[in-house]
Amino acid sequence: MARPRSDDYDEKRQNIIDESSKLFATVGFGTASISMIASKCGISKALIYHYYKDKTQILFDMLKSHVDELNHLISEALEKELNPEEKLKFVTSLLMEIYMRTRDRHIVLMNEIHSLAPDEQEYLKKSQSEVIHGFSELIADLHGSKYLKSAGTKTAVGMMLLGSLNWTYTWFREGGAISAEQYAEVLSEIFLSGIQSKKLAQLTRNGSKASGTKTSR
Predict the structure, then answer these.
(1) Is the pTM of this model over 0.70?
(2) Which part of the chain engages DNA, per the record (predicted)?
(3) Where are the domains of the chain?
């Protein structure tokens, strides 16, 4: 007979995911061990194995839940009844908020996906490609030219914007010279209106006054 699940089964499983994401983001998936995860969680190795057969299964569960949530939230945002410019600003701000809230998981996604089996990598990449596709279609709506409606160009421009968000974890620090909300706003303005935008100067002045003299590194 299978062992029945405890009332706090999901809570304990989530704790393993949360602590593992911090550990993988800090020391790397290759260095982390089940013993280290158990220590972080304050539980025994045996209890870890009650939930997961190995650390690779933990990694996939962690990243699957992350990209599934990301894809769901972005899909919902792209379906909102907003004009293309408002929608771009909303989605950019939402992505930045998600990345700040799930920073450890995002770092692991960007650096450790290769540690998974090919079929698991394929699942995650397919889910990510759906986000890219949504961005690409939004960009096509923003620009009326035939050139930007070509599949290759839409994807390239969409990746340009996503790249400006995806890699913020390498330099952005909360409490720095610009907040996550301000960064999303500045990025949207540059993307929509260019570096010579008059509004951009106002946004950056407001950001400096609001955040003091700290730097983002």
Answers:
(1) yes
(2) 33-52
(3) 62-170
